[in-house]
């Protein structure tokens, strides 16, 4: 399961509690999972049963005790095996906005522009957020220069995707404007 390997990767960076794993995954643009918190704890139990992680209880006086998970040598071997053996997937491009837009052809141009403006606002916010995360090096495992470079490039992937979407929006607007000008010059049917 993908979540198992995401967790092993995080634990290869540093020991974490289940809550810390959840927080890092929620904050990440690419370490996402589509489920509830129980999936993380179930994955941690599975990894523990397989000997890929260990846990240690940290006793605290003024707060609940913490279970801190660490990757084992066999867990690190399994993570590296997976990294090298899994074929890269073609990215999924399921965008609800494109489905909305595909049926917006019957709307007035102003309404289509309104849809574009809403999408542009979202993509502009995403771009700013991804740039900020990259600048702050949020949750960057920084064990080597190569790893640091790789994480910079992962964030660049998201930045470039947002920039490409904004460029596409501009091209779309230019096309709409061209259509408006053409429609003004077409003879009216009686």
Keywords, separated by commas or semicolons:
190 residues, elongated, mainly alpha, three-stranded antiparallel sheet
Which word captures the global form? elongated
Instruction: Give the mean pLDDT.
Output: 87
**Major sheet size, sense and barrel closure:** 3 strands, antiparallel
| Helix proportion | 55-70%
By secondary-structure content and strand pairing, the structural class works out as mainly alpha
Rounded to the nearest angstrom, the radius of gyration is: 23 Å
What is the percentage of strand-forming residues?
Answer: 5-15%
H/E topology pattern: HEHHEEHHHH
Give unreliable regions as ranges.
none
Record the strand order, biggest sheet. Answer: 1-3-2
Count of DSSP strands: 3
Our count of helices gives 7
Terminal residue distance: 63 Å
Describe the structure.
Strand 2 and strand 3 form a beta hairpin. The chain has helices at about 1-15, 20-25, 35-50, 75-85, 95-100, 110-135, 145-185, and strands at about 15, 55-60, 65-70. Helix 1 crosses helix 3 (about 35-50), helix 1 packs across helix 4 and helix 6 packs antiparallel against helix 7. The relative contact order is 0.09. It is mostly helical and about 190 residues long. The termini are far apart. It has a three-stranded antiparallel beta sheet with strand order 1-3-2. The chain has seven helices and three strands, in the order H-E-H-H-E-E-H-H-H-H. Helix content is about 65%, strand content about 5%.
Would you spell out the secondary-structure blueprint of this structure?
Layout: H1 2-13, E1 16-17, H2 18-27, H3 37-49, E2 53-58, E3 66-71, H4 73-85, H5 96-102, H6 109-136, H7 145-185
Antiparallel strand pairs: 1-3, 2-3
Helix pairs in contact: 1-3, 1-4, 6-7
């Amino acid at each position: 399961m993908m979540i198992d390997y995401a967790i092993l990767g995080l634990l290869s960076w540093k020991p974490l509690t289940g809550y810390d794993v959840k927080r890092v995954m929620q904050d990440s643009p690419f370490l996402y999972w589509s489920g509830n918190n129980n999936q993380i704890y179930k994955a941690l139990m599975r990894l523990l049963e397989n000997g890929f992680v260990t846990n240690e209880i940290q006793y605290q006086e003024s707060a609940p005790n913490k279970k801190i998970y660490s990757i084992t040598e066999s867990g690190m071997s399994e993570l590296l095996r997976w990294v090298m053996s899994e074929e890269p997937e073609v990215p999924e491009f399921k965008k609800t906005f494109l489905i909305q837009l595909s049926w917006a052809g019957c709307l007035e141009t102003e309404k289509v522009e309104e849809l574009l403006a809403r999408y542009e606002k979202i993509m502009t916010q995403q771009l700013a957020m991804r740039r900020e995360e990259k600048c702050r090096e949020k949750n960057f495992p920084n064990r080597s220069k190569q790893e640091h470079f790789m994480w910079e490039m992962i964030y660049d992937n998201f930045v470039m995707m947002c920039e490409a979407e904004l460029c596409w929006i501009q091209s779309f607007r230019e096309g709409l404007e061209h259509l408006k000008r053409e429609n003004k010059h077409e003879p009216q049917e009686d």
